[in-house]
């Protein structure tokens, strides 16, 4: 197996050497080299290439293969000369062998050109039709849009107002390309342009005009269309169709069973003529609409191309929408700055008020004016000003001595009842009797029980009244003692609070 492998390699190497030593007999060396490179990339037998060309097999053929074949194919004279070496086929180089095989195909180059046209026809139609429709639709949009016309009037009005008193005052119109120059006209502070001012006027006074970009949806597509190239492509398509019809008329009858060129290309020619006719009608309507639009805007179509015109409109449309967005962004920024400024002013105002209150409180304490001190302290306590920046106090050591509450110092009152009242009455009666006996001579008289009872009742009422007053006075005195003790305890806290306020 190893020996057989070596023999095959040697055979292939000798075969390559033989190929290299074969001399060209007809073809130019450069043409032969390019054709050899193409055939090496194609990797298909020459007879198979011939068959798919005769059958116009679109499944195996594509425009790239046909284009390379047309560009590398020798001239018809050289191909005809190679037909003489049909019997010396094996002694020829690969490019010349391919030429010998292709020499049997009649009208090879016209045939390849027709096949290439057929393969590229649908692509050409799909490229031309959208461009024609875009330009035609854009012309209709511009002519029907009332909003765009009102925007142009507004631009002219603002321009005349700005040019009042100059030689450009009361202008009747302006060139359409002037719309793109509005961004270069700036205010004194160099922050706002004519375009931003126009957008602001539309926002404030004429909000409906902000929708004019929606009326011009196809202007951007039309700005990318080159009318000259489109017309050139249509003419090229028409020329190829005429050439195809001419070739079909002069084509000889097929001599090979695989030759289906005339049959397939005749059907294609009929379809292509129909498609081209429709495109020509649409293109004619587009040109008419464009010339009418140029007349509407008083523009010379010979001086301004469709591409330039629609580019100016498209750029103005884009710049206007951008100016509207920038105006909205600036307003939002200003609103945020205004809110931030108000919040800052509010904070500073509250800070000044707090400082003013502290200063007034300190001034009152320094002057020794006690009037309103407690009110100021209460206000400071209620608002929380007295406790701002309050630091934690260290725990005080507990007192070893017991504190006596004011309530423990109150006198204990005896409960009042009827027996106590009788005892008091007896003591008062005995005192009165002693006083009467020592003051004057006793008079013997029968006791009057009614008078004694009356005087006894009167005295008991008086005693109860005096005792009530005594209890009331005692309670008041006790309450005063409690209040006094409370105030005495509150004094150190107030003094500490005043000291802290002075430190603030």
Which key phrases capture this entry?
single chain, 504 residues, mainly alpha, Methane Monooxygenase Hydroxylase, Chain G, domain 1, 17 helices, elongated, disordered N terminus, coiled coil, FH2 domain-containing protein, FH2_Formin
- Proportion in helices: over 70%
Strand content: under 5%
Report how far the terminal alpha carbons are from each other: 108 Å
Mean pLDDT: 76
Q: How many DSSP H or I helices?
A: 17
- Tell me the number of strands: 0
Largest sheet: none
Q: Any idea of the CATH topology of one domain?
A: Methane Monooxygenase Hydroxylase, Chain G, domain 1
Instruction: List unreliable stretches of 5+ residues.
Output: 1-7, 13-21, 398-420, 428-456
Class from helix and strand fractions: mainly alpha
Tell me what the structure shows.
- With 504 residues, the chain is mainly alpha-helical.
- Among the domains are: 8-105, Methane Monooxygenase Hydroxylase, Chain G, domain 1, CATH 1.20.58; 126-306, Methane Monooxygenase Hydroxylase, Chain G, domain 1.
- It has 17 helices and no strands.
- The chain has helices spanning 2-21, 29-42, 46-55, 63-72, 76-82, 94-102, 108-144, 146-162, 194-204, 212-215, 219-223, 227-250, 261-296, 306-367, 373-383, 418-439, 449-503.
- The radius of gyration is 60 Å and the shape is elongated.
- The protein starts with a helix and ends with a helix.
- The relative contact order is 0.06.
- Mean pLDDT is 76; it is low at 1-7, 13-21, 398-420 and 428-456.
């Amino acid at each position: 197996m190893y020996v057989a492998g070596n023999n095959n390699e040697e055979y292939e190497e000798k075969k390559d050497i033989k190929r290299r030593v074969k001399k060209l007999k007809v073809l130019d060396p450069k043409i032969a080299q390019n054709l050899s490179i193409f055939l090496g990339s194609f990797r298909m037998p020459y007879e198979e290439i011939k068959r798919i060309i005769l059958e116009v097999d679109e499944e195996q053929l594509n425009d790239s293969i046909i284009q390379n074949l047309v560009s590398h194919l020798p001239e018809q004279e050289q191909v005809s000369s190679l037909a003489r070496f049909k019997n010396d086929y094996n002694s020829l180089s690969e490019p010349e062998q391919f030429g010998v095989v292709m020499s049997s195909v009649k009208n090879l180059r016209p045939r390849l050109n027709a096949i290439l046209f057929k393969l590229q026809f649908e692509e050409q139609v799909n490229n031309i039709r959208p461009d024609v429709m875009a330009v035609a639709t854009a012309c209709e949009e511009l002519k029907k849009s009332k909003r765009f016309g009102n925007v142009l009037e507004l631009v002219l009005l603002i321009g005349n107002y700005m040019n009042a008193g100059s030689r450009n005052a009361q202008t009747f119109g302006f060139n359409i390309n002037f719309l793109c120059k509005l961004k270069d006209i700036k205010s004194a502070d160099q922050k706002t342009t004519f375009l931003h001012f126009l957008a602001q006027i539309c926002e404030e006074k004429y909000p409906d005009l902000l929708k004019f970009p929606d009326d011009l949806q196809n202007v951007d597509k039309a700005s990318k269309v080159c009318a000259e190239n489109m017309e050139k492509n249509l003419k090229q398509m028409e020329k190829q169709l005429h050439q195809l019809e001419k070739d079909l008329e002069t084509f000889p009858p097929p001599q090979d069973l695989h030759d289906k060129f005339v049959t397939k290309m005749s059907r294609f020619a009929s379809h292509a003529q129909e498609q081209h006719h429709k495109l020509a009608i649409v293109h004619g309507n587009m040109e008419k609409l464009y010339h009418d639009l140029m007349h509407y805007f008083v523009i010379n179509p010979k001086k301004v191309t469709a591409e330039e015109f629609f580019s100016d409109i498209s750029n103005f449309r884009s710049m206007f929408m951008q100016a509207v967005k920038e105006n909205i962004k600036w307003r939002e920024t200003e609103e945020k700055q205004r809110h931030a400024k108000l919040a800052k002013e509010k904070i500073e105002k509250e800070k000044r008020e707090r400082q003013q209150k502290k200063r007034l409180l300190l001034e009152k304490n320094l002057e020794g004016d006690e009037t309103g001190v407690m009110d100021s302290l209460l206000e400071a306590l209620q608002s929380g000003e007295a406790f701002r920046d309050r630091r934690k106090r260290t725990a005080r050591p507990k007192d070893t001595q017991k504190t006596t509450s004011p309530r423990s110092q109150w006198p204990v009152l005896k409960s009042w009842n009827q027996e106590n009242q009788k005892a008091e009455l007896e003591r008062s009666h005995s005192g009165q009797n002693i006083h009467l006996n020592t003051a004057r001579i006793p008079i013997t008289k029968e006791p009057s029980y009614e008078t004694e009872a009356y005087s006894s009742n009167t005295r008991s009422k008086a005693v109860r009244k005096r005792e009530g007053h005594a209890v009331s006075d005692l309670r008041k005195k006790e309450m005063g003692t409690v209040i006094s003790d409370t105030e005495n305890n509150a004094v150190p806290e107030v003094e500490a609070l005043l000291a802290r306020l002075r430190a603030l």
